[in-house]
Amino acid sequence: METSDYSNPEEYPTEIHDYLAEFEQCLGSVDEMLKAMMLVSRSDLQKLEPLEQAKLDLVSVYTLNSLFWVYLVNQGVNPKEHPVKQELERVRTYMNRVKEIAEKKKASKLDKGAASRFVRNALWEPSAENEKKSKGPGKGKKRKMD
Fold this sequence. Notes:
The chain is an all-alpha fold and 146 residues long. The protein has helices at 17-39, 42-45, 50-74, 83-106, 112-122, 128-135. Among the domains are: 1-39, no CATH class; 45-107.
């Protein structure tokens, strides 16, 4: 991407110079990232897990639509009234679904056998010896009073 010299204050108000410089830097970053993504072959991407492929595809589509949103704004079109808004919402919905799937996959699974053994062993069961100790004097058999 070719850098421009924004040193001429007659081209635009000087208050926005920092904003324009930052915007230009961000565009350069986007350009570098897109070039890097274009160098990766689709066959390499197919080696990814299906969930990772879905994440990558969704991020790519979301990025492309976001760039189109910026393009519409630069052309003076209100993107909120353009079908790109519905597309971004649709992609966001799928991104949330993929996130839920990923979270379910990470969630620990209950080992029912281990849980039942843990509970069974944690419960106290009185033994015959413990029962005799708990009855103590006057609680067990009645004594004869002479």
